[in-house]
Amino acid sequence: MLRLAIQKSGRLSEDSLKLIRECGISFITSSLKLKTESTNFPLEILYLRDDDIPGYVADGVADIGIVGENVLVEEGMQQLAVEQLGFSKCRLSLAVPKGDQYEDISDLQGKNIATSYPKLLQAYLEDKGVQANIHTISGSVEIAPSIGLADAICDIVSSGSTLISNGLREVERVFKSQAVLIANGGLNDEKQEILNKLLFRIHAVQRAQKAKYILLNAPNDKIAEISELLPGAKSPSILPLAEEGWSSLHSVVNEDDFWEIIEKLKAAGAQGILVVPIEKMIV
Ligand code: ATP
Ligand code: MG
């Protein structure tokens, strides 16, 4: 059985569980339990504080884990990364009180900066040739300037609304992060095989997230033109409509491309265009 460590409660928890469920892996959750076993896949789930996940995976207490890249790199354990998962996207940014003068990073020379990510911040400042006093605190970083603890902060930002509501202005982006799957380097063959199965499923889910199934009606003399716009996995399926001279075309399209080609499809005579989600996609 493969042991997966995920965050017990926080910003990674829900999407981590959602990904595992979308992979068709069932398990019963309870807020009181710290461990569950899947009922249909050889996977055991451990619920932990996110900061502890890289260490547990490195030590082999858990075989794999899901954690933010910010935490992984801060802990100096990048070597455990298997692949990015595309959720919990955020950035580590420097921010100063909004009324303060700030031209560029050299304005932070000699200043006090509060953060929970001293290593990432130190590396960034070193790279920019700036020396500052880093104060490591474990939470509520954004209030540090207003209580006189620091001149600036370096904290996780996604929309920026927390900064604004604390009277802060984002001035530098230090690190970009998203959730990442990590694994112990010494998995035995059996565990590696389970991980490969899990990765196969994760890839099918990820592929499906961007892909849409598209159905449309077209006059027969336009099929060649429309097929070129919608190559799909191989080529579109074409079914005759009951109405003479018309066909229904089915294909797969990337959501981002869809908006680019929609006008061309209409110009080519496509009608009754339907775009529907795909749950899994195996190529
Ligand atoms: P724990 O109690 O497990 O230690 P925590 O308070 O340290 O939790 P969270 O705030 O739940 O951590 O954030 C977990 C991870 O989610 C962060 O390390 C980061 O990668 C990501 N994250 C944090 N804030 C956001 C956000 N606003 N939007 C998206 N992702 C975020
Ligand atoms: Mg934490």
Tell me about this structure.
The chain has 283 residues and is α/β, with parallel strands linked by helices. It has eight helices and 15 strands. The chain has a six-stranded mixed beta sheet with strand order 2-3-1-4-11-5, with helices on both faces. It is globular and about 80 Å long. Bound molecules: adenosine-5'-triphosphate (ATP) and magnesium ion.
The tally of strands reads 15
**What is the percent of helical residues?**
25-40%
Query: What's the arrangement of strands in the largest beta sheet?
Result: 2-3-1-4-11-5
Radius of gyration computed on alpha carbons: 25 Å
Give unreliable regions as ranges.
none
- Report the mean per-residue pLDDT as an integer: 95
DSSP helical segment count: 8
Distance between the amino and carboxyl termini: 27 Å
Question: What structural class do the secondary elements suggest?
Answer: alpha/beta
The main pleated sheet reads as: 6 strands, mixed
Please trace the helix and strand order, writing H or E for each element. EHEEHEHEEEHEEHEEHEHEEHE
Overall spatial form: globular
In percent terms, what proportion of residues is strand?
A: 25-35%
Bound molecule types: adenosine-5'-triphosphate, magnesium ion
